[in-house]
Amino acid sequence: MSDFDLWSIRMHASGTSEGINRHLSGAERLVDGSLLNQVAVEMLTRAKGKFPDSIQITVEAIGDKDCHHIPCLSVQTVLSASAFEAAEFAKRVLASAGVPLSTATSAMNALQHGFSSDGVALRGASLWDSITGKRLEADKVRGVRASRFDYSPEGGAAVSKALAEHGLDHFRTREALALATKVIWSGIVAELCWSDEPSYTTGYVSTHRDGYVRLPGFKPAGATGGRIFFVQPNAADIASIEHRLQKAYALIDPPVSIFEPITAEDFLIRNEH
Ligand code: AMP
Predict the structure, then answer these.
(1) What is the residue with the minimal CA distance to atom 15 of ligand 1?
(2) For residue range 46-98, what is the model confidence (pLDDT) as tens digits?
(3) Residue of the nearest CA to atom 17 in ligand 1?
(4) 116 CA distance to ligand 1 middle (Å)
(5) How far does the centroid of ligand 1 lie from the alpha carbon of residue 272, in Å?
(6) 71, 75, 83, 206: which sits with the fewest CB atoms below 10 Å from its CB?
(7) Radius of gyration from C-alpha coordinates of the chain
(8) Cα–Cα dist 122/115, whole Å
(9) CB under 8 Å to 251, separation ≥6 — which residues?
(10) With a 6 A CB cut-off, is 178 part of the ligand 1 pocket?
């Protein structure tokens, strides 16, 4: 596929419950024009499953605008005995990317209880100063959404094959890996994620150095979920990072490296944390 016939397609579904308008579902793809109809129907079907009041699908031709080809993050599954142990491990990974223990602890508290007293989930991620944990996103209700990314056709084939070979071919893993790859490429130093789907307890932490680190059982019971993007405290850079996250087009290329599951202890020794 030449990048020339590339299109961006994005979906956002929302609905009202208890008098509050809530984000229910979102998705982003970059696809060849020949796939647009099929992807639009897939997105509609997914959105309708959440019983929304409103679904927006935005389609945009990329034409000859710049589209970056970026390398896929490596995937590592780290096994822990409990959510507590997974959290302690994630704090070590975050520390190696420059996020102090106190900020990592506050981040997990925020994902446990949500960002607002009325329990409304952010549509995107919260953008944090990696040292102080100060929230930097301009729109504190919406958050920052990573957008305009997908696997290239070769990247998509490679990721499907590699995930299937490791028993990981779940759409959530596939989508989260793409998102995490775009986020780290955009200049974010680390990302922390717990799904807002109550039954999905695998979370992840990702950094430039360690890649995408999946942690089964990471999300504690009753957690709200969400995402936090940590950015170095250098105000001059933030606008360009937000621009890359939200506006720059990026296609993820092979290879896709997936490692065998490993214990937290072995990971920390192997990666010299
Ligand atoms: P999910 O993993 O789909 O359950 O999403 C968990 C949370 O991550 C959502 O509630 C949003 O707050 C956030 N999120 C989902 N998609 C994005 C995105 N494209 N960019 C930034 N944050 C996102």
Answers:
(1) 124
(2) 999 999 999 999 999 998 788 999 999 999 999 999 999 999 999 999 999 99
(3) 124
(4) 16
(5) 30
(6) 71
(7) 18
(8) 7
(9) 3, 6, 30, 67, 68, 69, 70, 149, 150, 151, 152, 155
(10) no
Question: What confidence tier does 1 reach under pLDDT thresholds 50, 70, 90?
Answer: very low
- Does the Cβ of 241 fall within 6 Å of ligand 1? no
Residue with tokens 């202890």: 265
**Within 10 Å of residue 20's Cβ, how many Cβ atoms?**
11
> Measured between alpha carbons, how far apart are the two ends of the chain, in Å?
41
Q: Whose CA is nearest to atom 22 of ligand 1?
A: 124
CA distance 260 to 35: 34
Burial class of residue 262 in the structure, from the number of CB atoms within 10 Å of its CB (0-12 exposed, 13-18 middle, 19+ buried): middle
CA-to-CA distance for 112 and 209, rounded, in angstroms?
A: 26
pLDDT at 31 over 80: yes
Task: Tell me the one-letter amino acid at 224.
Answer: T
Q: What is the pLDDT of residues 169-223, one digit of tens each?
A: 899 999 999 999 999 999 999 999 999 889 999 999 999 999 999 999 999 999 9
Question: Which residues have CB under 8 Å from 36's CB, separation 6+?
Answer: 7, 9, 59
* pLDDT, average across residues 238-263: 95
Instruction: Please report, as a single letter, which amino acid is at residue 243.
Output: H
Residue 164 tokens, joined: 């299937």
Burial grade of 212 (CB within 10 A; 0-12, 13-18, 19 or more): buried
Token pair for residue 119? 């329990």
